[in-house]
């Protein structure tokens, strides 16, 4: 019995085409599955995933970290407000036209926008105080 | 129009298993609006993928949540196997299904107890958890731990259930099924349960689909969507159909979960009959490069593990989107217009697992 | 009758014996596969340090240059995953015991020592009891 790994097409878009493409998908009967952002060296890669009758498709935006603004899709899918507030609170992305905007108060966090750094930046920031772990093997 | 007051619900509340905060805007006992906020149990587990090798992240993935732990580890392994195109042996797939369904029964029995507790029915709460104890002993006998199974790894499973233990598992499950049938018939027929749950927290079929609901919340409103139909693991070889109710209220969600518990017993019996012999793991070589979205059906709904590798032993991005996170907008919709005394019943009816929500 | 479902259940459980055990007079029967605690037969250990490398939480600390050789285990960091047991080359020295570790008053690290054997064979290895 071979494992079935489903096909998962990803469409790369520009942020000005996002809302119109999402409106197309909504008219077609797709439901929103998730919104995810990845912090890379120069850009944020934001992936919007949709599903209809077990067929999975994704849209991907690439926004530069210096100009991190995306339009909201809560006009089409109101349920996206949790994901977009999470993008604002964890990554520092600015989302315009949010229908339900918590203005940074959705996540109660001690350190604001903790995910707004890549692995290399986090290591450089932590370098002066070297991590003190047991498990030293001599 | 009465005067509006705002009262906080949570993060500490006797009925909540985990901390979530809701600001309820009230007008004389009727809830006008509910404003959620999270973050009390945020551990930053997604960033831990930068410090732990991808094969060791299974241990972290398991510990995102206690109740849904096995299926989280299965989803992570499925995601890495999807990126690296690894073929898992058949016996391992059947074992994963058996443990996954045991995990589902455990979660639903726990939830039935909490639901009964939310409207004060302590006797039913204690009886549900009494059955759960026997199931936990069975899980410990096969997997080694009561809550954290520690059995899944990339490329297969770590321990086996021998053939003679399988017959013991079969017999024990029959007894547990008889006992749980008594409990679910109380939920189905008792008039005090019906008075607190029928007509409470209604969400229509269209709204549930558009707001992004998943799991029993979606299926109790009439949408027949169950991620096990995708055929991951050994589900492609088992016969079952998604369980659907049309009420859309708390009673319908309770009925969906009761019937799913009985369906899971049937699925485990099918898997025990069809299981083949053979190896339980396959050796993995190489590093993950590429990305994959693994979608599985947890007891609470559709969970998605997104894994992106860049050729090193540390993953570039690990993202978990849990079912309770997707069920928060339907919850906000359901709470508008309900009575204050119904708020605990509605919050529990979506089965909130907040430690999953905030990883 | 909608009331009798629960009444039947309540009467049945009132007439049966209690579902709880009278611990500590009655102890739960042992389950062989339980992951209780990590324990060592220090005599068989060759100090290859594979277990320390595989441990996901760095709970094992090994010092093989000192004399006697020291093996430290922090039970508070251990998550009982069993990776060390699977990695062990001798398959005899580190194992999972099926009894849970007893509660302690102070957080401490468990230490086993093994006197470094002399280069020519025939000298027995002495092992100290865990502290």
**Total domain count of chain B:** 1
The CATH C-level name of chain B is Mainly Alpha
The quaternary state of the protein chains shown equals heterotrimer
Low-confidence stretches of chain B: none
Strand order of the largest sheet of chain B: 1-2-3
Classify the helix fraction of chain C into a percent range: 10-25%
Fraction in helix of chain B: 40-55%
Q: Which second-level CATH architecture of chain B applies?
A: Orthogonal Bundle
CATH topology of chain C: Alpha-Beta Plaits
Q: Give the CA-based shape of chain B.
A: globular
Largest interface: A-B, 34 and 50 residues
Taken as a percent bin, the fraction of beta residues of chain C is 15-25%
Total helices of chain C: the number is 3
Q: What fold name stands as the CATH topology of chain B?
A: Cytochrome-c3 Hydrogenase, chain B
Percentage beta strand of chain B: 5-15%
CATH class of chain C: Alpha Beta
- SSE run of chain C: HEHEEHEE
User: What is the overall silhouette of chain C?
Assistant: elongated
Task: Describe, in plain words, how this protein is organized in 3D.
Chain A has three helices and six strands, in the order E-H-E-E-E-E-H-E-H. Chain A is 22% helix and 28% strand. Chain A is globular and about 50 Å long. Chain B has 13 helices and eight strands. The model of chain B has no long low-confidence stretch (mean pLDDT 87). Chain C has 131 residues and is α+β, with helices and mostly antiparallel strands. Chain C has one domain: Alpha-Beta Plaits, CATH 3.30.70. Chain C is 17% helix and 17% strand. Chain C contains three helices and five strands. The chains are: A alpha/beta (138), B alpha+beta (359), C alpha+beta (131). Chains in contact: A-B, A-C, B-C. Chain A binds chain B through residues 1-6, 8, 31-34, 36, 38, 47, 49, 54, 56, 58, 77-82, 102, 105-109, 114-115, 119, 122, and chain B through 21, 36-40, 42, 44, 46-47, 50, 81-82, 85, 87-88, 90, 93, 209-213, 225, 227, 229-232, 234, 236-237, 292-293, 295, 302, 304, 306, 308, 314, 316-317, 319, 321, 325-326, 328-330, 358.
TL;DR?
Chain B is an alpha+beta fold and 359 residues long. Chain B has 13 helices and eight strands.
Characteristics of this structure?
heterotrimer; A: 138 residues; alpha/beta; Beta Polymerase, domain 2; 4-stranded mixed beta sheet; two-stranded parallel sheet; 3 helices; 6 strands; disordered C terminus; C: 131 residues; alpha+beta; Alpha-Beta Plaits; 3-stranded antiparallel beta sheet; two-stranded antiparallel sheet; 5 strands
């Amino acid at each position: 019995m071979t494992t079935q790994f489903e096909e998962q097409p990803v469409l790369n878009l520009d942020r000005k085409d996002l809302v119109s493409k999402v409106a197309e998908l909504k008219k077609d009967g797709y439901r929103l599955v998730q919104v995810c952002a990845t912090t890379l060296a120069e850009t944020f890669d934001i992936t919007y995933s949709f599903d209809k009758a077990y067929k999975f498709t994704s849209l991907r935006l690439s926004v530069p970290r210096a100009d991190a603004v995306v339009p909201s899709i809560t006009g089409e899918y109101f349920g996206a407000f949790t994901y977009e507030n999470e993008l604002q609170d964890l990554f520092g992305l600015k989302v315009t036209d949010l229908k339900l905007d918590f203005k940074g108060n959705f996540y109660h966090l001690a350190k604001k926008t903790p995910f707004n750094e890549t692995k290399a930046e986090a290591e450089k920031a932590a370098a002066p105080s070297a991590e003190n772990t047991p498990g030293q093997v001599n | 129009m009465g005067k509006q007051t705002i009262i906080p619900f949570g993060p500490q509340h006797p009925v909540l298993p985990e901390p979530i905060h809701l600001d309820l805007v009230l007008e004389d006992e009727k809830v006008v609006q509910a404003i959620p906020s999270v973050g009390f149990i945020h551990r930053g587990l997604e960033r831990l993928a930068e410090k732990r090798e991808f094969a060791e992240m299974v241990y972290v993935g398991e510990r995102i949540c206690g109740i849904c732990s096995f299926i989280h580890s299965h989803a992570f392994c499925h995601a890495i196997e999807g990126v690296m195109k690894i073929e898992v042996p058949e016996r391992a797939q059947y074992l994963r299904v058996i443990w996954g369904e045991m995990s589902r029964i455990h979660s639903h029995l726990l939830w039935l107890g909490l639901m009964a507790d939310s409207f004060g029915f302590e006797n039913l709460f204690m009886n549900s958890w009494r059955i759960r104890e026997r199931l936990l002993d069975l899980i410990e006998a096969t997997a080694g731990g009561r809550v954290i199974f520690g059995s899944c790894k990339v490329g297969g499973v770590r321990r086996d259930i021998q053939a003679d233990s399988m017959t013991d598992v079969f017999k024990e499950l029959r007894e547990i099924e008889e006992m749980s049938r008594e409990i679910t018939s109380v939920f189905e027929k008792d008039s005090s349960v019906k008075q607190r749950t029928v007509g409470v927290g209604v969400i229509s079929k269209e709204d549930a689909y558009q707001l992004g609901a998943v799991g029993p919340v979606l299926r109790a409103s009439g949408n027949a969507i169950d991620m096990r139909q995708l055929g991951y693991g050994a589900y492609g070889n088992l016969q079952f159909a998604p369980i659907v109710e049309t009420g859309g209220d708390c009673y319908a969600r309770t009925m969906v979960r009761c019937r799913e518990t009985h369906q899971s017993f049937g699925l485990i019996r099918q898997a025990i009959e069809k299981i083949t012999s053979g190896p339980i793991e396959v050796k993995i070589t190489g590093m993950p490069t590429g990305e994959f979205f693994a979608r599985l059906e947890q007891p609470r709904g559709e969970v998605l593990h997104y894994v992106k590798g860049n050729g090193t032993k540390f993953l570039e991005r690990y993202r978990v989107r849990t079912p309770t996170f997707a069920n928060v907008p339907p919850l906000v919709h359901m709470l508008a217009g309900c009575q204050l005394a119904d708020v605990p019943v509605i919050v529990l009816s979506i089965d909130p697992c907040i430690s999953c929500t905030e990883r | 009758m909608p009331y009798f479902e629960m009444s039947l259940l309540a009467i049945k459980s009132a007439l049966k014996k209690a579902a709880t055990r009278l611990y500590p007079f009655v102890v739960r029967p042992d389950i062989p596969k339980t992951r209780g605690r990590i324990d060592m037969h220090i005599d068989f250990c060759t100090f290859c340090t594979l277990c320390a490398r595989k441990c996901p939480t760095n709970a094992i600390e090994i010092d093989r240059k000192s004399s006697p050789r020291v093996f430290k285990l922090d039970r508070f960091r251990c998550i009982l995953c069993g990776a060390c047991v699977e990695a062990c080359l001798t398959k005899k020295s580190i194992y999972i015991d099926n009894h849970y570790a007893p509660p302690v008053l102070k957080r401490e690290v468990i230490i086993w020592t093994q006197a470094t054997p002399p280069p020519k064979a025939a000298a027995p290895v002495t092992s100290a009891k865990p502290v």
